[in-house]
TrEMBL record:
It is found in: Membrane. GO terms for cellular component: membrane. Keywords: Heme, Iron, Membrane, Metal-binding, Monooxygenase, Oxidoreductase, Signal, Transmembrane, Transmembrane helix. Residues 1-24 form the signal peptide. Its main location: membrane. This is Cytochrome P450. It is a single-pass membrane protein. InterPro entries: Cyt_P450, Cyt_P450_CS, Cyt_P450_E_grp-I, Cyt_P450_sf, Plant_metabolite_P450s. Heme binds at residue 465.
């Protein structure tokens, strides 16, 4: 493979000189104002993208930023990409001039691949995006709506603690890794929130497998269509057919669940009761219910099609599973690594339970636990699940840091670097929740980045993740209850590595967490 690229580069070198010479004769004023970057090979762009993948791309980009500055220009084929590593420039771009950089980059291959169903994360900045986002924030992420999913959270917590207890008794056995147990729990919870039904394990795992197969295939085998899609869609027709078959498989699983909520609404069972009913596996409210109510005013007031609802449901499940389970694994790993922090958190949990007279930690209880919130915030600062947020794009040419970013350019932000900025944080490599307590260097930090950006695990500005409240509630709820039920100790002969990273759908621990999980009160 390396030889092939070297031969191709050698073949293109004469062409490069001709194109560069032609460009110089024509002035090239716009390109001289682009942020700096490494040398570009015409057609191919930066060979960096060919030679690296996963976490190595991020590391290579950091080296390039160290050489060229906080704004970096890269090319992938004919597509221009700019990355931003400085938190002040990020604030200027995303917050101070939020509307200017609130769009998403367009990909010519989307229509060819049949991926044109809009979602919150992919929609262009405009009325449709506002409608989808407003619906999610008001009908799912609002605290009053989140309380309606309490029975599902309690059921998932009970199953998760049972699985962890069984895993400890079996010495690991066939139970899978701890993070796999977390992933299943988060996915099961999101399935219940999405479709309004607490499904059995087999059904949940079938949906998870179908969803993951499509996501993995799309993120690996389908990337080739971003390069000359009119040609590659013919050369790799088999990949298209495989992807369409995977999407149909997912649709066959989703539609009975969507139709069940549609029928429920027809029978007048869609109204939300004052309190959720614990004795049934059917929830009084779901994300699908809200999608059934949406009407597209700019399209004759029509309802969403089945394919549009499936795209939004897939986004819902994808967006909250790996991100939350990854963050949960990192936080629990840090608590194993730092037993004094875990003990301090457990003391707060015991104190809260004593004051409420309860034998568990509820959603309302976590609001009274500042140290719990500090632990979660420190986990998100030190180990954001994604080292970059979803890419942005300017709707028009925009100036940033003395350079011009052309309309439609893909713009990425190195959020992990901002949370590790030595100018913003004392001892940034340390896991120190106390920094978010009164008197700490992170006291009162604005995680939304509205006032200033010091960390932005959920992004910032107009396109900040709408699931921020959902994710933080889930992390606080599960961290508190996992520490309430178990003491998390280092496994014998296993060192917890909180520095090694690798890229999957998120940035995960290179060496998955191994821990001895001891029920509280046990020897």
């Amino acid at each position: 493979m390396e030889l092939m690229w070297l031969l191709l580069a050698a073949f293109l070198l004469p062409l490069s000189f001709m194109l560069l010479s032609s460009h110089a004769k024509n002035g090239g004023k716009a390109s001289r104002r682009l942020p700096p970057g490494p040398a570009v090979v015409p057609v191919l762009g930066n060979l960096l993208w060919v030679r690296h993948h996963g976490i190595d791309i991020v590391r290579a980009m950091r080296r390039l930023h160290a050489r060229h500055g906080p704004l970096l220009t890269l090319r992938m084929g004919s597509r221009l990409e700019v990355t931003v590593s400085d938190r002040r420039l990020a604030h200027a771009a995303l917050v101070e001039r939020g509307a200017a950089l609130a769009d998403r980059p367009g990909f010519a291959s989307r229509d060819l691949l049949g991926l044109n169903a809009a979602t919150i994360s992919t929609s262009s900045y405009g009325p449709l995006w506002r409608l989808f986002r407003r619906n999610f924030v008001a009908e799912v992420a609002h605290p009053a709506r989140l309380r309606l999913f309490a029975p599902a959270r309690a059921a998932v917590l009970a199953e998760l603690t049972d699985k962890l207890r069984l895993r400890e008794e079996d010495g690991g056995g066939d139970q899978g890794t701890i993070v796999e147990t977390f992933q299943y729990a988060m996915f099961r919870l999101l399935v219940a929130m999405c479709f309004g039904e607490q499904l059995g394990e087999r059904a949940v795992r079938d949906i998870a497998a179908a969803q993951r197969d499509l996501l993995l295939y799309s993120s690996t085998k389908v990337r080739v269509f971003a390069f000359l899609p009119a040609v590659t869609t013919r050369l790799f027709r088999g990949r298209l057919q495989a992807m369409f078959a995977m999407r149909q498989r997912l649709k066959d699983m989703y539609m009975p669940l969507i139709d069940a909520r549609r029928e429920r609404k027809k029978l007048g069972l869609g109204a939300v009761p004052p309190e959720p009913q614990d004795e049934t596996t059917t929830l009084p409210h779901s994300y699908v219910d809200t999608l059934l109510d949406i009407r597209l005013a700019d399209d004759g007031g029509r309802a969403l099609t089945d394919d549009e609802m499936i795209a939004l449901c897939s986004e819902f499940l994808n967006g909250g599973t790996d991100t939350t389970s990854t963050a949960l694994q990192w936080i629990m790993a840090e608590l194993v690594k730092n037993p004094a922090i875990q003990e301090k958190l457990h003391d707060e949990i015991k104190s809260t339970m004593a004051s409420t007279g309860s034998d568990h930690i509820s959603e309302e209880d976590v609001l009274k636990m500042p140290y719990l919130k500090a632990v979660v915030l420190e986990g998100l600062r030190r180990h954001p699940p994604g080292h970059m947020v979803l890419p942005h794009a300017p709707a028009e040419d925009m100036e940033l840091g003395g350079y011009v970013i052309p309309k439609g350019t893909t713009v990425n932000f190195l959020v992990a670097d901002m949370g590790m900025d030595e100018r913003a944080w004392e001892r940034p490599t340390e896991f120190a929740p106390e920094r978010f307590m009164p008197g700490g260097d992170g006291e009162g930090v604005d995680i939304t980045g509205t006032r200033e950006i010091r960390m932005m695990p959920f992004g910032a500005g107009r396109r900040i993740c709408p699931g921020l409240n959902v994710a933080t509630l889930h992390l606080e709820y599960f961290v508190a209850n996992l520490v309430r039920v178990f003491e998390w100790r280092s496994a014998e002969g296993e060192e917890v590595d909180v520095d090694g990273e690798k890229a999957e759908f998120t940035i995960v621990m290179a060496k998955p967490l191994q821990a001895r999980i001891v029920p509280r009160g046990a020897a």
